[in-house]
Amino acid sequence: xxxxxxxxxxxxxxxxxxxxxxxxxxxxxxxxxxxxxxxxxxxxxxxxxxxxxxxxxxxxxxxxxxxxxxxxxxxxxxxxxxxxxxxxxxxxxxxxxxxxxxxxxxxxxxxxxxxxxxxxxxxxxxxxxxxxxxxxxxxxxxxxxxxxxxxxxxxxxxxxxxxxxxxxxxxxxxxxxxxxxxxxxxxxxxxxxxxxxxxxxxxxxxxxxxxxxxxxxxxxxxxxxxxxxxxxxxxxxxxxxxxxxxxxxxxxxxxxxxxxxxxxxxx
Length: 267
Ligand code: KIV
Known about the structure:
binds 3-methyl-2-oxobutanoic acid; alpha/beta; about 270 residues; globular
């Protein structure tokens, strides 16, 4: 039986040149399927707020939301390394609340690691959390919680000044103790440079093919999110019409009295 994936396994994959697969997941049945397929890392992303709860962005997501969804995923006992996102305002206020909230995702949620958005600006927070022996995945580039500062979901690092800033961010999160870093929405060449300079695995999303691994939002790859369609997403299935067909058939059979039959009823 496959043993549980640890941060050491993830770091070894970079060392050995094996690409790392990661997907977001927010519920028990999907976590079971993902694990049967052999995904390396599962992210309970705060994207849950957008693709699952229907908010316009990730900012309203709470610690309680994250703990609820992390528990649901962990109940599937995945062999994948489970990483939970720290939502907006759970780590920006002070170190005490950052440490407490990271601890809650491990203790109450059952995650093995947490993810934090930001670079140089959150390096002290990463240090504080890793000093509690909680593994941290950093997240730099297009950081959705910084939506208003960025003026929208824009590719980051396109000019020299921004590229230098991102290189500094990557160095800062690694020095602060992050064991991996998500690179979101940055040009391919810059992601390749960060990946080759970095001692920790880079996980790309909209950062080209040179990263050590890739992450996507599960609803995007299954064709279940109509709100937005970023260029970096690849749709591996189109489940919406499949689900709509099943629901329409059910409605029709109920209306016609074709469901339930005797086989669906008790004597
Ligand atoms: O919340 C999320 O799903 C994420 C990924 C897009 C990296 O942070």
